[in-house]
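Colleagues,

Please find the record for the two-part complex below.
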Amino acid sequence: MRKWGLFLPEPSSLFNKLWDSHIVTSLPGGGALVAIDRVFLHERTGASALNSLAEAERAVTDPARVFAVTDHIVDTRPGRTDKTLMPGGQAFITETRAAAKVAGITLFDVNDPDQGIVHVISPELGIVLPGCTLVAPDSHTCTQGAFGALAWGIGSSEAEHAMATGTLRLSKPKSMRVRFSGQPTRGVTPKDMIMTLIARHGAAGGKGHAVEFAGEAVSALDMEGRMTLCNMATEFSAMSGFIAPDAKAFEYLEGRRYAPKGTDWDRAVESWKQLSSDTGAVFDTEIEIDASAITPMVSWGTSPENSIGINGVVPDDAGERSLEYMALDKGQKLAGTSIDAAFIGSCTNSRLSDLRRASALLKGKKIANHVKAICVPGSSRVKREAEAEGIDAIFREAGFEWRESGCSMCFYAGGESFAPGSRVISTTNRNFESRQGPGVKTHIASPETVVASALAGAIADVRELM
Amino acid sequence: MAEPFTTLTSLPMPLVRDNIDTDQIIPSREMKSTGKTGLADGLFAGWRYTEIDGREADPDFVLNDPYYTDSQIILGGTNFGCGSSREHAVWALAEYGFRAIIAPSFAPIFSGNCVRNGILPAVIDADAIAIIEKANSPITLDLSAQKISIDEGKSWAFPIDEEAKAMLIEGLDAIDLSLKMANDIATWQKADRAKRPWIYLGANQ
C-alpha cells in the first residue's frame, strides 16, 4: 500500500472519468445504471422506436434531450422531397416525422437547413459535448467521441430504454489506449490511421473495450480528422472510441446552438479540462502505432480488416470467399485495378475539410471517362459552406455529381445503388458484400485516394499527384 | 417481453464464417417497413436466394438445407453480428426461429440486441465450435449452468454477465426494471443538474 494512498487519488483514465461521472447506481451482477445525456434518432429506426414506446404507454421522459434527423433513407438527388427511390422509403420519413411530433422531440427534417448525417450535424449544433454520454441507434455514433464524449451505437430496444428512463443498463467494458506516435507523412490521413489499426489488429481487435485514441499524431489532428478516426472504432469491434478534449474541441463548439452559453460555458470548459487520462492511468490493453510509417490504405476484401497499403499486394492468406467476391487474386497489386465508380461521402469522410482536400486535388482536372463519381456532403451546412467556396463547381467540372446531404450510397436500401457487380472506391467505412448495391465491390479509402483513383480510372496512389 | 430462455436442445446450423455482418443477416433492402416483423423472409437474403431481391432458394446455402430446417441454434465465426446496429438482424433471426448463437466472439451492439430479444449469444472458442460442427448432432444449451454439451459427453462452459443471464432466464423487460429505479434516477439527475446545468436543455433553452 502506498504511504499516501489515502490522500492521493489513483490516476484515472479518461474512460473511467466518463464512466464514473454517469453511474446512477450499481446493479446486481456488477453492471451499472448509466445516465444518458443525449439520444439521437434517425428515420430508419426512429418511427419504430418511438411507436413501440407509445404502444407500451411509455413516455419520452425528457424530450428536450432527444433529437432526430432524416439522413439514412432520404433522397440525395437535387430537388428532393419525401419521395425516395427506395420502395416504401417515404413511410420511414413520414412516420418518423409524425412520431417525433407526438413525442415532442426536435427533428431536423428533410429540407431543414440543419439537416445532415447524424454524426456530422450533432457536433455542428453543439448537441454532443465533452463529458456527455450520447447514444443513437447507429453503429457509427462513436464518431462523436472525438469531442471527449462517451458516444456509442445501440439497438432500437436500447434507444427506447434510454428515452423512457434517461439511462442504460451496462456492463463496464475494458479500457484500451491506442497511441499514434510521430506524424503521418504526405498523403496519409486519419482514415489511413484507423484502417491501419484495424488491418493490423483485426476487425475484432477492440472487442470488449472502450478505446481512447492518443499520441502526438492524434493531438495534431483537427476536430474533423478526429471524427474520422473515432468513426471506425465500431469497425474495430470497440464499444466506442474517444479523444481527450482540448482547446481545439472547445473552440469548435463555442457558440454552437445547443452548446452552453455565458457563465455556463466558462464553467463547462473548466470541467472539461479535467477530461484526460492522468499520468500513470492504467489500461487493460495498450497499442502503439508509429504514424510516420503509415501509408495510404485501401481495402481489398469484404471486411475492413482486409486492408493494405496502396502499393501492397493481396495477401497470401486472403480468404477464398472474399477473393471470389472481389474478383481478385492473391499476390495481385491493387494499384492499377480499374474502377467503375468513386464515392465521396458518409459519416466517415464528408465534412468540409474532406471536401476541401479532395477539391484541391481535383481542381482543373477531369475524372476518367468510364468512372461514375458522386460527392455527397455530410450535412446541408457543409454543402452550403462548400458552395460558398466554389468547391461544388470544382467537383462538377471534374465530372462528379454534387448531391444533397445524407447517408446516400454508403449502403443500398433498395433504392439507388451502383451498377450490379461494379467496382467502387469509396470514402465510406464498410466494404461488406453488396453493402453499396447488388454484387458491388467496395474498396474503402481516404478522400484523397478516391480522388486520385477517380482521375486515373483505376486504384491509384495519391502521393503521385502531390 | 421475450420468451424466457432456460435450456434448449437443437441441432446447430453451421455458418462458421468470421465477421458475419448485420448487412448479411438482414440486408437494408429487406427492411421494408417501420415495424419489427415481416423480416424472416429477408434473413440472410444475399446468401439464401439465387438473386438479389429474388426468392428462389440457393440450395448451396445451409439455411436451405432440409437437414437443418428445425435448427434453433447457429454456429458462427469470430465477430458475429458486426456492422450496422440494426436490431432488425436479431428480429429476423428470432422471427425465423433461432434462439441461440454460438460464436468465438460477438460484436457488442448485436450481442446486446440478442439479449433484449430472448436470443442467447454464447461465446466459446473456435476449437470447440469445430468439434460441435464436426459432431453435427443435437446439442444442449443450459443457461443456468452456462454449459453447452454434446451427446458424446463433451461439454463447454460459456461466460455471460449476470444481468444478461437473468434477463434471458426470466424473460424480463429491461425498461420495467429500470423504471423501478425512477427515484434513484431523479435524485441523480437533481444533483447532476447542479453540477452540469448545460446538459439539461429543457431548462436552459
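Chain A is about 30% helix and 15% strand.

Comments are welcome before we finalize the supplementary table.
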